[in-house]
Specification:
It contains 14 helices and 18 strands. By secondary structure, the chain is α+β, with helices and mostly antiparallel strands. β1 and β2 form a beta hairpin. The longest helix has 22 residues. The chain is elongated and about 80 Å long.
Length: about 425
């Protein structure tokens, strides 16, 4: 890259995003569940090919993952990542392009599907950045990788791509960069050095009772009562066992037992999500979950030991100083007061960092806001941000298309150009 600043360089190399706004609406109205992102991946691949920009495209990596490589002379290799999968959520935004899609999940059950976490913005931002950076190739040198990852929501996509010989197909990057749209004021960006997102451990827990007639509970061991006791007791881990100065969350996201009113079921299923930010706190909480589940089953007279199965795991997301400090300087120069260099660590989790840590390469992740500025200011003034602003995974989550999309594209371009400099 020349001595011209990134800010002035991007100001002279704008990209009309109108077609990308329409592409975003397409992705939003055609979401696909984790491990089923076939049409999404095909649309991405078709778009990259249509750019005729010289990207070397590799598809079907770790499922429906894909990556494009743009080689532009000697220099560093930068990987930009976007995730592709959607959630089993019934959309209630009222948008004209709202999802009406249903798909069958792994259990064969029909589920409404929605891009309730903003991955549609991530895809579209990265595609636009891929075009913009390709057009600007006279102003930088090195190798750019645009990677589209499947199955982020269940924590397996990044690892699956790595295990499917990702780095035999693409160059090992010098730095990995990623981003996530959040319920923050649109146009604003935040990052930090160090831990930026929590670790997550998820479990499927099966409790075993003895079923029977609803009129004869004395002849049964009711797994509904057993599960209810477990759910209530799990809530005491954070409130009564973890030091109040430490961070931990224990959420029961699913409880299922039985099929009708007059039959007491044989078993109950609980799905538990644990979030922590320190290894020692994680160990404490996970041990408490296991202890409580087993003790409540024994107290209820369960016919056998509970089955505790790990269903997903996300690593802690840590921004390495070698990547985060240059990004901080570049974002401060480009976004000015709209950039927060010490944003609060998020309770949410990501598997993005596996793309870097698996190769001992530094990573940097940041957030960008999607809430309409006027709406944000009104709710902030009324003291109702928490009550009235839908967050990720809500059926009402609907980021404003602009300036959200422009910010996402700008952030990726600034991030890439930070490292794609002349040797």
């Amino acid at each position: 890259m020349t001595d011209q600043s990134i800010k002035s360089l991007l100001a002279s190399s704008t990209l009309d995003l109108h077609s990308y706004e329409e592409l975003y609406k397409h992705f939003h109205s055609h979401p696909e569940l984790s491990l089923q992102e076939e049409s999404t991946a095909a649309t991405i691949a078709s778009h990259i090919r249509s750019l005729n920009a010289g990207y070397e495209l590799h598809t079907s990596i770790g499922g429906h993952g894909l990556a494009g490589i743009l080689k532009n002379g000697p220099g560093k290799t930068v990987l930009l990542r976007a995730d592709m999968d959607a959630l089993p959520v019934k959309e209630q935004t009222g948008l004209e392009y709202a999802s009406k899609v249903t798909m069958r999940d792994d259990d064969g059950l029909a589920k409404s599907v929605m891009h309730a976490c903003g991955h549609d913005f991530h895809i579209t931002s990265l595609l636009a950045a891929a075009e913009r950076l390709a057009r600007m190739r006279d102003n930088w040198q090195g190798t750019l990788i645009v990677l589209f990852q499947p199955n982020e929501e269940r924590g397996g996509g990044a690892e699956a791509m790595v295990k499917d010989e990702l780095y035999d197909k693409i160059p090992t990057p010098d730095v990995c960069l990623g981003q996530h749209v959040m319920a923050l004021k649109a146009g604003h960006v935040g990052s930090k050095v160090g831990t930026i997102m929590s670790e997550s451990d998820r479990f499927k827990i099966t409790l075993f009772g003895r079923g029977g007639h609803g009129s004869m509970p004395h002849r049964t061991v009711d797994p509904v009562i057993m599960a209810s006791s477990v759910v209530l007791k799990l809530q005491t881990i954070v409130s009564r066992e973890v030091d109040a100065n430490e961070f931990a969350v224990v959420t029961v996201g699913k409880l299922h037992a039985g099929h009708t009113e007059n039959i007491i079921a044989d078993e109950a299923e609980i799905r538990v999500d644990v979030r922590t930010q320190k290894p020692e706190v994680r160990d404490q909480v996970l041990n408490a979950v296991r202890r409580i589940v087993r003790a409540e089953c024994e107290a209820s007279g369960a016919i056998k030991e509970p089955l505790i199965e790990k269903s997903a795991k996300f690593p802690m997301s840590i921004n390495d100083e070698a990547a985060a400090k240059p990004i901080e300087a570049a974002f401060t120069d480009f976004f000015g007061q709209r950039f927060d260099p010490d944003i609060a660590c998020s309770n949410a989790s990501e598997d993005f960092s596996i793309l870097g840590t698996s190769q001992n390469r530094p990573c940097c992740f940041w957030f960008f806001g999607g809430v309409d500025g006027r709406t944000w200011e009104e709710k902030e003034m009324a003291g109702r941000l928490a009550e009235d602003i839908p967050v990720n995974h809500s059926p009402f989550f609907a980021p404003a298309i602009q300036p959200t999309l422009q910010t996402g594209v700008d952030a990726l371009c600034v991030g890439a150009l930070t490292f794609l400099k002349n040797s």
